[in-house]
Amino acid sequence: MQQYTHENVRSIPHLPIYCNRYEDYRQFSPRHWHDHIEIIYVVSGSLQVVCGENEYTLQENEFFVINSNKIHGTQSYERVRVLLVQIPYVYLDSYIDDYGHIRFRECYETEQGSRKYEQMKSLLKSIAHIYRKKGKGYELRLMAKVNEFLYILFTNYSYKEMNAGKESRQIARLKDVLRYVAKNYQEPIALKEAADIASLNQDYFCRMFKKCMGVTFLEYVNQVRINHIHEELLATEDSITDILEHNGFTNYKVFSRMFKAQFGMTPRELRKLQEN
């Protein structure tokens, strides 16, 4: 879940959407993007969402909508249960005229208590329940609820943005770079390599990367590495030194500082907390 890259979204068999209900502890997903719109609904706990240049905190029974090709990431500092629904671009494009220029409202903090907002929360709660139970014919019920949510979203919280394609083109220029990092993060990656892949000079590449992604290229690479390190710390009994080496981190001091800033504890403390 943690890469500042293009995310390949899977669908439910026989259904045109991706849906997942997961539980995690101190979860961290570095910024990434995809063509799908994404609906994040917090079942319990709290979740930080970074979307574009803004940061939001979602509490239990709150949701957030992420538009197509919008760079975003998430992080939790406690145990959290989340419903994640992703709707393919082609699905919405087949029903909404000029969908390429349509954007949806993302944050609903000011809608607390409104009838439409409460209705949308109720639908997401039902979707989470239907998906968890997976009873006979659940796919039909789930899609009915999803489509009702999308109908309210489109008819009440959508607008046209004629410059929507500009940001998408900038992201597209970084696509090969992000895929390269995802494939080669275990090895040393030079800034020049990345700039060459994007067919840009280094100075312009650095400025565009920071503008699009919110972090420098080096910070991004280290975030991807830290994500994998975090997963291996919880999933294996390998030594911390071996895990760092396996994931391309050569400077322990830099790693230690970044890890504690990201998760609020050291790797050893994280492992001990999981054991308890």
Fold and architecture overview:
Mean pLDDT is 89; it is low at 1-10. The longest helix has 21 residues, at 164-184. The radius of gyration is 20 Å and the shape is globular. With 276 residues, it is of the alpha+beta class. A hairpin with a 2-residue loop joins strand 4 and strand 5 (54-58). It has a 4-stranded antiparallel β-sheet with strand order 1-8-3-6. Helices cover 47% and strands 20% of the residues. The chain folds into 2 domains: 18-160, Jelly Rolls (Sandwich), CATH 2.60.120.10; 164-275, Homeodomain-like (Arc Repressor Mutant, subunit A, Orthogonal Bundle).
Q: Could you describe the largest sheet, including whether it forms a barrel?
A: 4 strands, antiparallel
**Quick one: how many beta strands?**
10
Share of residues in strands: 15-25%
CATH topology type of the largest domain: Jelly Rolls
Biggest sheet, spatial arrangement of strands: 1-8-3-6
Order of helices and strands: EEEEEEEEHEHHEHHHHHHH
Outline the low-pLDDT stretches.
Answer: 1-10
Oligomer: single chain
Can you tell me the number of structural domains? 2
Shape field: globular
Pfam families: AraC_binding (PF02311), HTH_18 (PF12833)
InterPro entries: AraC-bd, Homeodomain-like_sf, HTH_AraC, HTH_AraC-typ_CS, RmlC-like_jellyroll, RmlC_Cupin_sf
GO molecular function: DNA-binding transcription factor activity; sequence-specific DNA binding
Protein name: Xylan 1,4-beta-xylosidase
Defining key terms:
276 residues; alpha+beta; 2 domains; 4-stranded antiparallel beta sheet; 10 helices; Xylan 1,4-beta-xylosidase; sequence-specific DNA binding; DNA-binding
